[in-house]
Amino acid sequence: MAKNFYQILGVKRGASTKEIKQAYRKLAREFHPDVNPDNKKAEERFKEINNAHDVLSDAEKRARYDRWGNKWEHAEAFEKARAQAGAAGNSQQFQFDVNDLGSLFRQGRGGGFEDILGNLFGGGGTRRGPMRGQNSEYTTEVTLEEAYAGTKRTLEMRSHGPCPTCGGSGQIANAVCHFCQGQGTVVQPSRMEVKIPPGARDGTRVRLKGKGSGGVGGGPPGDLYVVVKVQPHSRFQRKGDDLTTEIEVPVEDAVLGGEAQVETIGGKRIAVKIPAMTQNGKSIRLAGLGMPKLKGKKKGDLFAKVRLVIPDELNDRQRELFEQLRAERNSETPAEAKAKA
Ligand SMILES: [Zn+2]
After folding, report:
1. Best CA proximity match to 200, nearest among 288, 137, 292, 87
2. Which letter, b or e, does each residue of 75-109 get, where b requires 16 or more Cβ atoms within 10 Å of its Cβ?
C-alpha cells in the first residue's frame, strides 16, 4: 500500500501549515534532481514529495484528503455530482450514484476501506470486520400544494452490484475480467419512488432505510435521506402548520359586516363572515384549514388577514352619501347619547 501524504513528508497528521512547508523544503532540497543526477529513486521520491505538498498545502484539498484518503479526487467528483443532484431540485427526477463511495473503497482487490483507514491513521492496527455503508443525502423541492397533499419523487439511481461475468472477483482464469475491467462491480441502474408525506416542512428528512451506500465486508448498507425543500407560495405564508393569506374587504362590508371568499391551500373556496366594525389588518382564524400535521390527523389553522378596499371612483349618488357620512362623523355615538341621558 502506498504511503500517505503525511508519512511522505514525515509530519504528523495535525501538522501546521508552517511545519508542512518546512518539511517539504528540507526534503525537496535533499531529493532535487539537480543534486541527484541520474538517480531514478530520488526522482520518484521528489515527485512524491511535490505531490504530497501540493495537496497538504491547500486547505481545501487537505480537508478532502483527510476525509476520503487516497480517493480524495474521486470524492470531489462525487460531491459535485451530489450537489448538482440537489440543485436539480424541482425536476421530477434526479440522478445520483449512492454506491459511489462504497465502490471507491472497494476498488482494488485485497485493498479496501479498512486498509485506507489503517494507512491514514498511522499504519498500526488496521480495523477489521464488517463496516456499515455511508448514509447519502439528497434534496428535492416541492410546492406548498404538494407539501399539503403529499407527493412522490422518482429517484433514478445507479448502484454498484457484483459483476455477472466474473462473479465479483474481477478475474477470469487469472486474467482481468474484460466486462468490469477487473473492478468486480458493475453499474446497475434502478429507480425508486420516494413518498413525501402530507405536511412535509422545509428540512423534513425522509429516511429510506438501507438505500445508502453498500456496506464493506458484509456490513449493512447505509441509509438514504431525501431532504425536502418547500418553495415559497405567492398567496400563503407558512408558520409551522399554520397558514396566513389575505382577503380583500370593501370598506362598507368592514363597517356594516358582511361576507368574503377565501381560497384554501386545498383549493376550496369558502365563505368567511366579516363582523361589523372590522379593522384593517385584522386576522380571522379558520380552524383546521392550514397544513396537515406530520404526526396525527389534525391540521393547522388558516388566518385570513383583512385588507380594506377603498373605492377607486364614485358616482354622484355615492359621493353624496359619503359626504353625508362625513357630515355625521362628529355626531355623538349611541354610547355618548346614553351617557348624557
Ligand atoms: Zn467482471
Report:
1. 292
2. beebeeebeebbebeeeeebebbbbbbbbbbbbbe
- Number of CB atoms found within 10 A of residue 126's CB: 14
Q: What's the gap in Å between 160 CA and the centre of ligand 1? A: 12
- Cα(22) to ligand 1 centroid in Å equals 46
Domains of the chain: 88-124+131-230 (2.60.260.20), 237-340 (2.60.260.20)
pLDDT, tens only, 229-264: 999 999 999 999 999 999 999 999 999 999 999 999
Q: Buried (b) or exposed (e) across 2-13, using 16+ Cβ within 10 A?
A: eebbbebbebee
- Poorest-pLDDT segment among 46-55, 102-111, 124-133, 139-148: 102-111
Tell me which residue has cell 419512488: 193
**pTM score:** 0.56
CA 28 / ligand 1 centre spacing (Å): 42
What is the side-by-side strand order in the sheet with 283-286? 237-239, 242-250, 302-309, 283-286
Å from CA of 300 to ligand 1 middle:
56
